[in-house]
Recover the amino acids of this structure.
């Protein structure tokens, strides 16, 4: 998004309008891609208890993948992106609400829902690199 602050490498300075626009305009990946990822994950011994999606933005990929997991957490450093994600909600396979938390990727271990060795699949699906926006 050209209107973000180019000196903000974590995109924490999205406005509420920018976050909502991003949520609507940013398309999800094709279901076939999710199927490939989940098939590989389970075929190599991966469990489907907890998903962690870092850099989740408005939570599009988090919601798409959460239906395969008992619990799902989306984390993003932008408060407005997390507000957009929370407003769009979502449920996991077990019917639990997806948890959306403000957090840098490097600090995800501080999220209450994330305990030692509890994440079965970690994704960085829709995170935007600052280098792509320059």
């Amino acid at each position: 998004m050209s209107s973000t602050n180019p000196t903000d490498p974590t995109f924490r300075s999205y406005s509420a309008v920018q976050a909502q626009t991003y949520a609507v305009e940013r398309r999800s990946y094709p279901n076939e891609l999710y199927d490939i990822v989940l098939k590989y994950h389970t075929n190599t011994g991966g469990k489907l208890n907890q998903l962690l999606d870092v850099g989740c933005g408005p939570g599009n990929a988090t919601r798409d993948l959460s239906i395969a997991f008992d619990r799902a957490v989306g984390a993003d450093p932008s408060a407005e992106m997390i507000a957009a994600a929370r407003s769009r909600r979502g449920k996991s396979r077990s019917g639990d609400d997806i948890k959306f938390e403000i957090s840098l990727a490097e600090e995800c271990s501080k999220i209450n829902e994330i305990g030692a060795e509890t994440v079965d699949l970690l994704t960085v699906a829709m995170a935007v690199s600052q280098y792509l926006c320059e």
Observations:
- Residues 31-43 form the longest helix (13 residues).
- Residues 33 and 39 are 10 Å apart (CA to CA).
- The chain has four helices and four strands.
- Residues 16-133 form a domain with the Rossmann fold fold (CATH 3.40.50.150).
